[in-house]
Amino acid sequence: MPWIDACATDDIDQEDLIRFDHAGATYAIYHGVDGQFYATAGMCTHEHVHLCDGLVMDFTIECPKHNGQFDYRTGEAKRAPVCVNLKTFPVRVEGSRVLVEVA
Amino acid sequence: MGKRDYSPFGADAKRAVDSGLTAAEWYHTDVPRKVMKDLMARSDGPAIRDTILLYGLMLAFAAGGIATWGSLWTIPFWLAYGVLYGSASDSRWHECGHGTAFRTPWMNNAVYQISSFMIMRNPATWRWSHARHHSETYLVGRDPEIAVMRPTEMGKILLNFFGILDVLNFFPTLVRNALAGPTPEERTFVPESDWSKVRRAAQVHLAIYLGTGAIAVATGSILPLMVIGLPRIYGAWHHVMTGLLQHGGLADNVIDHRLNSRTVYMNPISRFIYWNMNYHVEHHMFPMVPYHALPRLHAAIKDDLPAPNTSIAAGFAEMWPALKRQMRYEDFFVKRDLPPTAKPYREDFHHYVPGMMPANPAE
Lengths: 103, 363
Ligand code: FES
Fold this sequence. Notes:
The complex is a heterodimer of chains A (103) and B (363).
Chain A: E1 3-8, E2 16-22, E3 25-31, E4 37-41, E5 55-57, E6 60-62, E7 69-71, E8 77-79, E9 88-89, E10 91-94, E11 97-101
Antiparallel strand pairs in A: 1-11, 2-3, 3-4, 4-9, 5-6, 6-7, 7-8, 10-11
Chain B: H1 11-18, H2 33-40, H3 45-67, H4 74-98, H5 105-119, H6 123-135, H7 154-160, H8 164-180, H9 195-219, H10 223-227, H11 231-234, H12 237-247, H13 257-260, H14 268-274, H15 280-285, H16 294-301, H17 312-328
FE2/S2 (inorganic) cluster binds at residues 44, 46-47, 49, 63, 65-66, 68, 81-82 of chain A.
């Protein structure tokens, strides 16, 4: 799987996320409360809505449309109306860059 | 468009899906991410304060009503208790259903469950209907929470100021849910994984009503029902009044909340009962923003919205004639002007809506 340079570490505030589009797919990249970076699919699994407009609280991303929640470390669906888990992707930091291993 | 078919299995529901309306992207005012993050921030403080106040007042008013039972002095206590039970529970149900009232999830859930009981809504069913109301606000046949269907039936609206139709619909559904889970209509928006939750919640609610009814019979007094159940009737008027203003007389089948939702400035008591949902365009555009931040959201985006109605009376003065007109002309709606600072309505997105183009009789 290719590692893709997604953004700089300081592009994302801590406890926040950004949208990252690559090769026709959309991803969400998170800067967690623990200082680590994480990546998930960019669209909610409930309806076709970008998570990048949502709210990061601790290790949860809340969808902006109906307040469904996922744990962005594992992708686990945590609160209705989301039932289907979010796909997650490995992330590593090299220097000041965030790299994502896209599927 | 003419005759509307509000059934989830009807022609309008099918047309909304086939035409792509249900999948369309809704209009949003641009708000810088930093501002929005600040507005979305969660906290427990305001909702804990308001919840202690609400339940404290309910206890005090109920105690006053019981202590003065049998005299005329009892009336004001029950009027006040009833509004908190039969109307404030609607806004608590709503905001805690979104999960935005408190930061702590169990607090949202606890108040959501209590409020669902008081407002007579199955907590497992209505979570899903409200998600649909947000995705497909006032799309005919798709939104299960359309308060005023066209043509307007004034009799129904007036009866519902006393919760009559809601309560009459609620109890048969409660029994059906308790025995067999969600109805076929409910199964169109409640996922199968939650059907057992619908049934369990209905059984608990039914047991409480049966218990209260039994105490009333055993004591030969309606007093237990004045505390549990009846306030949904005698205290419903405030939530019906504010609820009608949310979308009444405005457009349906559009994808811009500025066209189908209404923001109304209200007095502080109504705003406490209604938990700031008078900022209704704002709430629909950004449902992540908690009730206590809606005044700030309003200040941030008001230049992109139609001017709010300045009072409940002003809101009714705009809405009521429109509802009356919709008794005869189903396609009529009030299209409010936008300020010069706003992005215009995308009429080209809504060319299928009769009256959207400039010949609208409202103009
Ligand atoms: S679209 Fe994300 S919760 Fe509904």
